[in-house]
Each structure stands twice: as structure tokens, then as C-alpha cells.
Amino acid sequence: MAGRLAGSRAARELARRMGFMGSFRAGLSNVGGGPSLPVEICRRDAGGVSPCISSRVTARPGGEFPRGKVAFVAEMEFLAELLKERINCYRVLDDDGRTISGSSFKEVSKEMALEMYSGMVTLQTMDTIFYEAQRQGRISFYLTTIGEEAINIASAAALTMDDVVFPQYREPGILLWRGFTLQEFANQCFGNKYDYGKGRQMPIHYGSNKLNYFTVSSPIATQIPHAVGAAYSLKMEGKQACAVTYFGDGGTSEGDFHAALNFAAVMEVPVIFFCRNNGWAISTPTSEQFRSDGAVVRGQAYGIRSIRIDGNDALAVYSAVHAAREMAISESRPILIEALTYRVGHHSTSDDSTKYRPVHEIEHWRTARDPISRYRKWVQRNGWWSDENETELRKNVKKELMNAIQISERAEKPPLSELFTDVYDVPTSNLREQEALLRQTIQRHREDYPPDVPL
Amino acid sequence: MLGLMRRVSISGSIPTSMLQQSLQRILPGLAILERGYSTLGKEMTVREALNSALDEEMSADPKVFLMGEEVGEYQGAYKITKGLLEKYGPERVLDTPITEAGFTGIGVGAAYYGLRPVVEFMTFNFSMQAIDHIINSAAKMNYMSAGNISVPIVFRGPNGAAAGVSSQHSQCYGAWYAHVPGLKVLSPYSSEDARGLLKAAIRDPDPVVFLENEILYGQSFPISDEVLDSSFCLPIGKAKIEREGKDVTITAFSKMVGYALQAAEVLSKEGISAEVINLRSLRPLDRAAINASVRKTTRLVTVEEGFPQHGIGAEICASVVEESFEYLDAPVERIAGADVPMPYAANLERLAVPQVDNIVNAVKRACFRSVPVAAAA
């Protein structure tokens, strides 16, 4: 009697965990006696990118604990801290931009391919020019995405506008893809009155309600549980969209990463965790960040379907995100993508990475492993792009950027009234008093008030 | 001084022995403890008040949902969320894994995207594990996003000392959270406060920190029909005069309001009429009410259970000195908990938190009825 009940409860547990993508045959266990439960579970892959997992539990002595049955063994064996081989990395294009034979990937139209390519070039050019502007003292701070253009643009291309994005700070390419203009980027960096952030935040802390891109927030990894909360919201709404959150290798050390992943798995919410493993967290290399095999095994440890991909391969990024999105939404589950890449630029304008890593290593990744040139080769071999197109594009983007910067630089700063708004929905009385007092002081000492700050 | 001399007694007798001791004419305090409460005789515990407020707000708005450890199946660590899982289902009452940082971050994310979470901390001591999300992700977000991302979230749970739970379960976080622009911080005393303020907090578009008190959960208060109505709501930022008086202003919040009222009762027998202000809202602080009261009484004693340095009393004293200095007839005085982590042993614990005697003594010092503490050294 007890045996049969145990069997069916365990069977229900397994069914619940495998979800409706799994096919499942369960024999009810025998009455009393033998505790065996012949069950075969196979997870059908989606988009041809994940292996089939099967487990067969046959007549081995086992026992029930909370959470179900485990098989007992006589040998005391510790699981090794690392598997003999690292988890494989999915890629579509080789280093020379040729599709690897036998690779499965989501096809892109010529139009989409070119849009992606020009997005990557625009992002790279924007980064170079804004970085220079900071060096010239025209903006106070900047941080580049050099080396991660494929991650930025290709992942954005695989999402829809309904998918809500929770960035860390190295993902402006997603905003760019969704339609944020170079002028809008410049306005935020210069903190002028056209900045959607009303001059409240440092440069690169972009945000756009319209484009479903949540405002960048500096503390590391806090956006990860936020994304899970938003995904829960989407699930309750029954919307055909998911939340997507990006973070670096360093971010996976934060407590928020663990809590969020664990929670997302338990709550079964549609969220994509996108880890940009670029090898560096400011000066901390991944060997000093963690000892696991990167982030992909940690996703699995939390019961989350995970994949490792070549982050410098635009087509691999596009395919993986496309498949992840479908699974996340249709099965209401979290997915983890670990994209291996390299942070070619310094951490930010406040960093000089030549102090902690060899210059030849940086140069190697900037040139031989550059995601843009690799993708360009593929696009050009398809006959979709030429050197003339390249020169034309780069020239136009540069011109547009220089123009945008000039306009932003000359524009007025936000007015004084914006100092006190948005602390609360409606300003409280003490804030109203402070503003009144300040304006009175300005009236009395007009000559001391800076002329370039509007009231 | 002058203000006092001008006041004329219009009712009650004046004990002659008092006149010999001071220049002031002290009026016997009127017993107005029952003012504002119904005479119909209905009573409600603070626990019931909070539970009914959550129930009604969840019923009225499908976006409101609860999260926290043990809030569902266990009916709430302190039974505040009793019956709600059964009524609203697991999608609206979430039992979370043990990760304050995790579920607070998730709650904030849900609020970013449009839901209205009510996040419970088993005690606000544990909120420190989530404080980055409360401050950096919730409090500041509306400002940082220039009004694009509002965070209509409520963080609630027991705050301050309980009984015999020692230092990591007894700290008061009123001063910590009231320090931060972007947050609203409320602390109820009675059942009326609990109902009205929690409803207001849930309806408010800004993040609200709602500091309850474990000892008060079981305490019963008389309650009127108006308060029982599902649309009842109290304004955020307004204090309540729990007891009117003429000689000294005592400010307090949460459990200390009860102690202040007891002290006022003791004092009235000695001819001192104390006005007790229940702050209700720590941020925004009702400076207008506090200052109006001090201008009337000319003396101030602030009471709080938390640590003294940089506490709620410090802010109130500063506000009164800034705005009502010329009205003061005595130095302002703060009564607070001892400047030590809360000890466990019952005798030590009693010494570490304010008692009614401490409030009475402070008031007497403010009325120049006893020697100041410093002078005695």
C-alpha cells in the first residue's frame, strides 16, 4: 500500500518537474516490497540546440526522502569539482566567418543580416567616439562594449519589442537596435535638458519605457532578481513575452544571482538569464572570480536549462536567444545562456587594463577574434555587402555622431525645478518648502547663480 | 515663560502645593484617552486590523500580491496573513525561499513592471539583507528614471524590540529608513492606525516601509464603524494627537505611544498635563503638528525605543529648535533605548528600553520639577 502511494507521488513529482515538453511513461510501483519504479524521461530538444537527457531508474535498491526517490550505492564516491571536460560551446561560424558544416542555426534574411551588421558597426563607432569625447573632457565618464557587439546586436535582434530588458551596463546595443537614436544617447551622456533621465544619472545609464529597456542601475546584479519579478508579472498577465537580463561573469558572484536563479526555477517564470562571460571583472580574471566551469553549470545546478555559446559569433547568439525565448515563453521556464567573449576595451574610462593584462592579448582579441570582422566576412561572402558599403556606413555614422555630440554639448542643462520632482509621485511638503526657500535665495543673490543653469 | 503665564485655567482645580514649587500654573489634564474612538464598544486587535486591511486591498485590486517567508501555508510567522492563501491562491500569496535579497529584488522587479507587491520581512532586522534593493532599487528609482519607473511596493513586518529575542531581532529601523529620500516610512500604534495606514501604503504609488510591532499584534483597541469600512484610509504624513495637553509635548510612535499615554496618566495625577503625539508617519514627518504642539506647550520630550544616536528624536529636536526656538521654555529632551545591542536576559532587556518611569522623569525635568540628569553627576 505504502509502496504504491510512494510510486504515484514520485511520478507526479517527476511529471511536474519535467514539464509538458517531456514525454513520460510511469509504471505504478508494486504493492509493498520492491521500491523500483521503471520510468523513462526524455526531454525533446527545441530548435535542435540541446541534447536529449534521459535517465533510467530500474531495479536498484533505493529509498524515499523528501523530494522523491534516490538510488543507494555501496561505493563512497564524491562528485568531482569539475567534469573531465568543460561544457561544449555552440558556434555557427568559424574564426574566418564560414558556416561550420553540419551546424544548425536559425536562418536570417539578407535584410535582417545587414541590419545586424550595420548595428554592430554603429555600436562600435559610437563607443569609439564617445570614449574619445570623455578623454577630451567633454563628458565625465563612459564605458564601451568593444568586443561584445555580436552579443548586443544579435541578441536584441532575436527578441521582440514586448520582451522587457534588464541590462547591467554593457548592453546599449539593445537600445540601439530597438530605435534609440545617437542623439538620444548623446543627450544622456551630456545630461542636458533633453535627457530622458533629466540629468539624474551618470553617463551610459540609459533607460526607455517606450523601448521596454529598464534604466541602467549601477549596483551589480541587482537587475537579475528584478527581471524575475517582471517575468512573474508577465506570467500573471499571460503575455507572449519574456524578461531578459544581462550580466557579466563578475555578476554571477553576487548573492542576487543565486537568489534570482533559484527563485525563477521554483516560480517557473519566463526569463532569459544572459551571462556575458568576457573574462574580466575590472581587473579580476574569471580564474579568481569562480572555480566552477563558468556560469553554464551553475544554471544547471539550480535546475535551469542552460547553454554555452560563442559570444563572438553573431549567428550563434541569434539562434540561441531565439530558441531560448521560445522555450521561456511556451514552457514558462527560465533559461540561462552563457556567452563566452572578451572585453576588448578597458572596464571604463576610469580604468587602464594594460596594467593587469598583456597588451598582446588585448590586441589579439581586438583583431583576430573581432566579432564584427568575422560576421562581415560571412555577409560579404553571401554577396550582401561590399567595401564601398563599409566605407560609406562608417563615414555616415561618424558624421551623425559628431553632429549629435555638438548639439548635445550646446544644449541647455535641466532646469532647477527638476531637482525636486520624482523623489515621490507627488512632492512632499518639505520638498516644496526647500524649493521655495532656494528660489528666494536665488532671487536675493542673482549675481551668484550660474548663468547656464535654467530655472 | 510668558506664554505659560498668559494661559488661564478654565476648568478643574489647581492643587495649591504645586503653586509653591514653580511659577507656572499647571492645569490638571483632561482624560481624553477615549477621544476619537467609538462608544459602540467594537474592538479589534492590531493583527486583525492588518489582516483585514490586506484582505480588503487584495480584493479591491488584483495587482496586489503578498510575498514573504511563511506567509502562505504557515498563515504568516505572526499570523498576519492568516487565511489569505486559502482565499486568493498561491499566485497572489507567495511563500518565498529564504532569501531576503532575492525576494525583495523580485518584488521590486514586479513593481517596476506594474504589480503592487506587499513584501513581508519576518522582522525588519532581516531587511538588512535586502536593504540594497529597498534603497537603491526601490527608493531611488522613480527619481533616477525621471518618473518613468514608479515602484508601488510596500515592505512590512515587525520592527523594534519584542521580548527576549536579543540583539539581532530587536533593532528599530525607523531612523535608518526615514533617512532616505524616496521612501515613505509609517509606523502604526493602534488598530485604527494599522488599518488606515496599511491601506494608504498599499494604495500609494511610492515605496513604503511599514514598521509594525510584534508586541502590539495581540493588543486590542476600540474601533469605530468608520474605521471598519473598506474605503477607510489615513493620510500619510499626518500625526495624531492621541491626548491633548497643555504643559509638555511628548512625541512617540508604535509601542512607545502606549507608554507615553501611560506616562501622561501618571503625570496628570501630579498636575502635569501632557500632550501625546502619535507620529504615525516617520517620513514625511509631520513637523507642522509637532511644532504647533510645542509652541502651545513650550516643552518637548521625544520617545523612541531605538538607539539614541542619529535617531528619530534627534530629527524632531532639530526641527523644533530650528522652527520654534523662541517658544521653548526648557531644553528639548530625548528618551531612547540604551546605546547597546539589545541584551537577552529579562532584567537587562528591561534596562535597555525606555519604561514609563523614564518618560515621567523626563517630563518632570522639562517642567523643572526635578534635578536634570547632568547636574546630578
From TrEMBL, chain A:
Keyword set includes Mitochondrion: yes
Organism annotation: Spirodela intermedia
Location of the Dehydrogenase E1 component domain: 120-415
Catalytic activities: N(6)-[(R)-lipoyl]-L-lysyl-[protein] + 3-methyl-2-oxobutanoate + H(+) = N(6)-[(R)-S(8)-2-methylpropanoyldihydrolipoyl]-L-lysyl-[protein] + CO2
One of the GO BP terms on file: branched-chain amino acid catabolic process
Spans through the membrane: none
Documented EC number(s): 1.2.4.4
Localization (cell): Mitochondrion matrix
Subunit structure of this chain's protein: Heterotetramer of alpha and beta chains.
Protein name: 3-methyl-2-oxobutanoate dehydrogenase (2-methylpropanoyl-transferring)
GO CC annotations on file: mitochondrial matrix
Keywords per UniProt: Metal-binding, Mitochondrion, Oxidoreductase, Potassium, Transit peptide
Cofactor(s) demanded: thiamine diphosphate
A single GO molecular function term of this UniProt record: metal ion binding
Family in the record: Belongs to the BCKDHA family.
Domain of life: Eukaryota
InterPro entries linked: Alpha-ketoacid_DH_E1_comp, DH_E1, THDP-binding
Record-linked Gene3D superfamilies: 3.40.50.970
From TrEMBL, chain B:
Pfam family, one: Transketolase_C
Catalyzed chemical reaction(s): N(6)-[(R)-lipoyl]-L-lysyl-[protein] + pyruvate + H(+) = N(6)-[(R)-S(8)-acetyldihydrolipoyl]-L-lysyl-[protein] + CO2
Residue ranges of every copy of the Transketolase-like pyrimidine-binding domain listed in the record: 44-219
Cofactor requirement: thiamine diphosphate
Alphabetized GO MF terms: metal ion binding; pyruvate dehydrogenase (acetyl-transferring) activity
SUPFAM superfamilies recorded: Thiamin diphosphate-binding fold (THDP-binding) (SSF52518), TK C-terminal domain-like (SSF52922)
Compartments (UniProt record): Mitochondrion matrix
Keyword Transferase: no
One GO BP: pyruvate decarboxylation to acetyl-CoA
Enzyme kind, highest EC tier: oxidoreductase
Gene3D superfamilies per record: 3.40.50.920, 3.40.50.970
Any one GO cellular component localisation term in the record: mitochondrial matrix
This protein's UniProt keywords: Metal-binding, Mitochondrion, Oxidoreductase, Potassium, Pyruvate, Thiamine pyrophosphate, Transit peptide
InterPro entries per the UniProt record, alphabetical: PDHB_mito-type, THDP-binding, Transketo_C/PFOR_II, Transketolase-like_Pyr-bd, Transketolase_C
EC number: 1.2.4.1
Role played: The pyruvate dehydrogenase complex catalyzes the overall conversion of pyruvate to acetyl-CoA and CO(2). It contains multiple copies of three enzymatic components: pyruvate dehydrogenase (E1), dihydrolipoamide acetyltransferase (E2) and lipoamide dehydrogenase (E3).
Subunit structure: Tetramer of 2 alpha and 2 beta subunits.
Protein's name according to its UniProt entry: Pyruvate dehydrogenase E1 component subunit beta
